[in-house]
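Title: Comparing notes on inverse folding

I've been comparing how different people in this forum approach sequence design from structure. To keep things fair, I'm posting one structure and asking everyone to reply with a full sequence. Here's the target:
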């Protein structure tokens, strides 16, 4: 079902071909393609390689001019808003000119994507553009088009054979889409009949039709090296999923031209597939899953946040009072509720073990299975042999979350696709690694799980400070490699945020006081490791082609400024994503004050827990710190702490309740513990 296609032994399409023909039908989707309505496209798909195209340009909904402009420069680009007809093309002899092209280039400077304008049109000495969209794709920065035909009806075998590269615009689908797709297919039939020998044909959808919605589009490559198969690209690492920015670098390779350094796309390759009908069914299912994500994602986080808040407030109302029995009941409630709230993220990932997107009611299947897995994982965490240990249930739960995410990242990120905490191909534009919403959960789970194992190692080997350091180091090594290594997660924010927090945790467990002279090395440790990963990705592509490597290449070639500026702008822009985004900085400041002076703020639960168990204070501060660093280090910005808040807050309160629920701070639900977590260390 997951189309685990194997790449061919040799890269498909690496041998240059005599002719490349690109046919664009904006808005084309597999749901409109059938043997009856689009026979020409279906025959091409049966003999060629198929995939689903992410046409994300600057926004999730790419207008037709966005798609053609992205093909032009090999990087995300956008036409003037709102979406309208394509810019006018003025015929001049055998060529044409687009007067608006210089203005379009100036308009795109605000996005800092650095397109190589005119790249597609420069890949061959002779290029023919057919239709206004095709003219936009091959136009030089001045707007000039060397060879131009206004309509596909003027195409002949002679025209198709005269240039190594021909780009054809068959227009955009209109409502109703099926008859419109059938009309475009009739034009495609004439083009296929006139193709010269040794032609590589690319049929795709450069953007949505006007007024369209975000969807995965159709893409077919037919010709030498692309027999019946499934398209792949290193940029997505997902079988059958390619991006709009992959097309221009692929055309360059097909024509035997070098690909300019710094392009974000990668070459299309071919993997094996089963029957075409089964492959198309799965590609349509992938788009169905995306629609579920888009329509339910925001509501899920609203419900999750409200439910988490209700679980924290309920015991205050139900067990109001200061007597010992009511306090014990509040602590017991918070301890249990926190575990269930913290089990929600891993429950959503485990829901992807079953292909819910292929069922009749996919959203019901997704959230039903997520709820079921949440209950199972939380119950196991509360009932395990560690249930009476400090940090036991939470530590086990967090290690489970870390293991699920880490192993998933190392094996292709299949469990993260289209679940609420996971990856969205259309809205997020991320295809592998740790998603923006999951980054905070991943980092917090790493720290809590590592702290629990460090605590167990301290008690198992009293007096040996290297034991907890080794335990934390092993957990941290797994977490950082899974999320940061170019061939796995290649996540910038996770690497920068996790490393310094793990170092601080190891230092505390070893009884080492981090003085001011170590502050800067610890603070930049994650950044240094990120640069190391980026250079490895750039100089050794076999380790994993990733955005890290693209960044290193841009930096080495003097183009890193635009990328950094774009990332900073994206980070700052997250503060205006919703009307509630501004609350996150307020919550961060309030949380810091609560952790710093809980007694002064009359937060007795935290005050008692921090006094009885110093490790609780350390873990709480590290949870706060890793989310703040993740906020500033990742281009997803404030989304990192915002998405993690319903997970982290109940977790910290549950941890504090586990300690303060002990009678007199000396016993924890019948199991004794006392003093510092670290043997021989004075509680701080």
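Reply #1:
Here's my take.
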């Amino acid at each position: 079902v997951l189309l685990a296609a194997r790449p061919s032994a040799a890269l498909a399409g690496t041998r240059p071909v005599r002719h490349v023909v690109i046919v664009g039908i904006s808005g084309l989707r597999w749901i409109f393609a059938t043997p009856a309505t689009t026979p020409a496209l279906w025959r091409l798909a049966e003999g060629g390689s198929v995939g689903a195209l992410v046409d994300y340009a600057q926004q999730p909904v790419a207008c037709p001019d966005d798609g053609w402009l992205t093909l032009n420069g090999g990087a995300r680009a956008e036409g003037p808003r709102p979406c309208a007809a394509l810019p006018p093309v003025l015929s001049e002899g055998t060529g044409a000119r687009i007067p608006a092209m210089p203005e379009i280039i100036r308009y795109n400077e605000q996005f800092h994507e650095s397109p190589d304008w005119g790249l597609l049109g420069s890949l061959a000495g002779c290029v023919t553009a057919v239709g206004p969209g095709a003219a936009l794709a091959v136009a030089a920065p001045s707007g000039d088009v060397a060879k131009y035909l206004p309509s596909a009806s003027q195409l002949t075998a002679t025209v198709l054979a005269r240039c190594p590269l021909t780009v054809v615009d068959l227009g955009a689908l209109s409502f109703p889409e099926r008859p419109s797709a059938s009309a475009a297919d009739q034009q495609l039939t004439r083009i296929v009949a006139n193709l010269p020998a040794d032609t590589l044909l690319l049929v795709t959808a450069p953007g949505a039709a006007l007024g369209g919605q975000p969807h995965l589009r159709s893409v077919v490559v037919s010709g030498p090296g692309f027999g019946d198969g499934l398209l792949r690209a290193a940029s997505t690492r997902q079988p059958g999923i390619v991006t709009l920015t992959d097309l221009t670098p692929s055309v360059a390779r097909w024509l035997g031209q070098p690909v300019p350094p710094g392009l974000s796309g990668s070459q299309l390759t071919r993997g094996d597939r089963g029957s075409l009908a089964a492959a198309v069914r799965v590609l349509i299912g992938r788009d169905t899953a995306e629609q579920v994500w888009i329509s339910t994602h925001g509501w899920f986080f609203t419900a999750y946040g409200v439910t988490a808040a209700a679980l924290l407030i309920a015991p205050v109302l139900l067990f109001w009072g200061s007597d010992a029995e009511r306090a014990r009941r509040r602590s017991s409630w918070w301890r249990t509720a926190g575990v269930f709230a913290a089990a929600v993220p891993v429950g959503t990932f485990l829901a992807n073990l079953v292909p819910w997107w292929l069922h009749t009611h996919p959203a019901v299947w997704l959230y039903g299975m997520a709820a079921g897995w949440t209950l199972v994982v939380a119950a196991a965490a509360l009932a395990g042999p560690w249930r009476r240990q400090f940090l036991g249930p939470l530590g086990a739960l967090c290690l489970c979350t870390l293991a699920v995410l880490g192993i998933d990242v190392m094996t292709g990120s299949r469990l993260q696709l289209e679940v609420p905490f996971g990856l969205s191909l259309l809205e997020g534009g991320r295809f592998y690694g740790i998603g923006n919403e999951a980054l905070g959960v991943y980092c917090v789970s790493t720290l809590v799980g590592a702290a629990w194992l460090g605590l167990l190692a301290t008690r198992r080997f009293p007096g040996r400070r290297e034991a907890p350091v080794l335990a934390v180091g092993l957990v941290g090594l797994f977490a950082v490699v899974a999320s940061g290594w170019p061939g796995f997660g290649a996540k910038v924010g996770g690497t920068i945020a996790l490393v310094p927090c793990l170092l601080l945790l190891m230092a505390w467990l070893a009884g080492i006081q981090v003085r001011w002279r170590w502050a800067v090395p610890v603070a930049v440790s994650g950044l240094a490791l990120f640069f190391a990963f980026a250079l490895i990705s750039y100089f050794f592509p076999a380790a994993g082609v990733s955005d890290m490597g693209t960044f290193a290449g841009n930096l080495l070639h003097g183009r890193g400024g635009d990328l950094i500026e774009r990332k900073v702008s994206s980070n700052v822009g997250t503060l205006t994503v919703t009307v509630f985004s501004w609350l996150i900085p307020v919550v961060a400041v309030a949380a810091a004050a609560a952790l710093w002076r809980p007694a002064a703020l009359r937060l007795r639960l935290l005050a008692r827990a921090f006094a009885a168990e110093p490790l609780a204070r350390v873990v709480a501060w590290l949870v706060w710190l890793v989310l703040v660093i993740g906020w500033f280090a990742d281009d997803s910005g404030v989304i990192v702490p915002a998405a993690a808040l319903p997970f982290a807050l109940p977790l910290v309160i549950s941890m504090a309740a586990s300690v303060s629920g002990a009678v007199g701070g000396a016993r924890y639900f019948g199991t004794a513990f006392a003093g510092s977590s670290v043997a021989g260390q004075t509680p701080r």
